[in-house]
Each structure stands twice: as C-alpha cells, then as structure tokens.
UniProtKB/TrEMBL annotation:
Signal peptide: none annotated. This is Glycosyltransferase. It comes from the Bacteria. It holds the Pfam family UDPGT.
Amino acid sequence: MSVLVISPDYASHLLPLATIATAWADAGESVTVATGPATAGIVAEFGFERADLVLGRGSNPGVIQVDEQPPGEDTALRGFFDATRHGMLATLRYQAEARRTDLLWEPVDRARAVLDVVERLQPDHVIVDHLAFSARLALDAAGIPYADVVLGHPSALPVGDEVYGYPPVWPTAFTPPESELATLHRLCRDVRDAFTAEWNAALHVLAPAATPSVDAFAEHGDLLMLNYPSALHDPARTALLPPHAFLGSAVRAEPVDDEVRDWLEAADRPVVYVSFGSFLSARGDVLATALDGLRPLGLRVAVATGSAIGLPDLPPEWLARRYLPQVALLDRAAALVTHGGNNSVTEALTAGVPMVVLPFSTDQFAGAAAIEAAGLGSVLDPNTVTPAELGTAVRAVLDGPPAHLARTIGAELRQTPGRDIARAALLG
C-alpha cells in the first residue's frame, strides 16, 4: 500500500502532514511527499521519497526570510508584516485582498502537474493540505478521492453562513467597531466570489462537464481531517461539518542536541517557552515586549528568535536561538507564549502546557478565542500589550486553573496520537 502526501513548500504545513504519514511508514508502507525544493530536507529527515511539486510562489524551510522570496512575494510579505502593526482588522483586510492572487497560483498548470504526479505514482491513498487549493482542484476535477487535512483552526473550512477570512469568533481583547467588521465582511464576501469564479474557470478547463462550485472556499475532500482537539470545537459547529475526523494533534518526534538537553536538565525553575513561529517572529518588537515582561519573573526562558532583529540583551541563563526544537521544549515547559499558530497550539496542548496567546492574523483569532473560552490560557493584543501585562498573564496561567486544565487535555490527547486516528479514518 502507498500514500501520497501533497503539501505546499512550507515547513509549518509539511511537518504535521509528514507526521501523519509516519503511521503508514511504520506499517511498512510506501510514503511519497509531493512538495517544493525548500522543504526537501524535511522530507529526507522523515525518510520519505519526494516528488517535486511547486504549488505557489513562496516557500519557507523553517524560518521565513523576506529577502529570500521571489520578486513580488517579498513585497507581499513586507505588506503583511506592516499590516500586523496596524491591528486585527488591517491584517485581515490585507490577507483578504491577497487571496485574490495567492491561493490559486497558475491553477490549471499546477493542477496538471499534480495529476502528472498521481498518474506516475498511482498511490492507494492521497492526503492533501486543505490550503493546497490547486491540488484539491486537480483531484476534484479528475474524480480522485482524497483526505483533506485542515491544519489550521477548523474555521479554515467555512460552514453554514460563515465567510472565509472573517473570524467566526474573536477573543475578548479585541473589540473592533461594528462598522469596520461589516466592511471586512463585505470584502471577504467579494473575495470569496472572485476566488470561486477563478476556481470555476480553471475547473471548466480541466473538466468541462464538472458542476461549478458555489463557494470554492467551502469545497473539501471525501474525508475531512482536522488537526485540532474536538474538545475545543463548538459542538454546534461540529454538527455542520461534512464527514470528518478530529485528529487532536499531529506531534512529531524531535531530536534534541546536547546544548538544549543540558539546558533543560539544569532547569531548577519553571520553563517558559516563547515562539512566534516561522512567520511572526519578524515582529521583533512584540517579541522584545514579551521578553521584557518575563525578565522580572525569575523563570527559565527559552526563546526561538526566528527572523527577529533588535532584541534586547537576555539573561545568560536563558536559551535563545533562531530555531529551537519546539516539541522537546514543550515537553518540559510550564507555559508557552505564542502567536497562536495551530501547530504551536496543538503541540502545547498535547504536552499539557497552558498558553498566553498574542494572535496576529487569520485563524489565530478564532484559535485564541477557543483557548480563552476553554480556560487554557489568556489572550492579549500584541500591538498594545505592555511588559507588565505580559508578565501578569504568564504568572496567572502558571499559578491558576489553566495549568491543571492543560494537563488534563494533554493526557487525553496523548492517549491516541493524531497520526493513528488519521490512518484508521482513512482506512475505514
């Protein structure tokens, strides 16, 4: 038996998908990952075969570097980071406008490239990142069954009257004016309609007899897999989902070098891990605020600095690197300060770690709201938070109910790894 995994050329997408695929590899079956060259090293580390498949202009092997992106993509990234400095609505507007051009890149050509890979490999199963729209378009057009993995918050697949790009809920730290929300909602509807027209035009070229989509953002595979704990998802929304499986999390095994191992073994105080992921680490100003807030607390702090520049000098006993083995650090951490990316959230929950979340964009707002509602942490506005507020929030999650609640959900998630749930669901 063989499985083909299709992923954009981004580490944050590939890592959970590859982790899911280890369930097939451990069963002695063949795994091929179709992705771009930037993440070839990750595919090799997992021991999988790789088929070359580029699905978009940009790439990210682990830490995004604007200057390493192709022309146009670098400008788009700078625009995104600038929008995050103006807050939630500015960021969501920017991202909505960007979807007019960045989610279906050369859709007919890329779809045909996907079908060439499938024809050559003849896999028994196909697993696709939900955001690989050109790949899913290809498989839909050809009538090829596939498992569709939503790696972000489940709101990445709109249900009911939801509109893609408009958060169905947001944390209490964000109170945007109703008039501006209405404007954002109209924009997201316009983008949805334009995106659907583009999807349908490509679909007509690939399969002229196919039924056009009403909302291309709401299209999904034969089996929907959600890399998210079902306990954090609104039951009313769950009832609206198509056939699905909540994976809980897809947490990979991760090697630890001697320096990190020695640092963890020497920890005589609670460890706080700080990371804004592969993209948002570019907001070095917010990262500096977080570190300043942690400094007076007397804790052991590990920080993944990513692409941040201009950070303050840190205490010598802290651990700071551009990239750190996040899964290993979360296994020993008492709290996480995070941007609220879904990988970080699900990995922290699996480790039983409460969070202080500073969401910047997209589904991070809905994910942060779920953390807040479940009592698993607190949420702060990254553009207005002060060091004192950050420190107070960290102390509250360390000493209050979130720590116990996180340990409880972590124990539940570790009972059945997400990769095993995925394999059982796909094999039926």
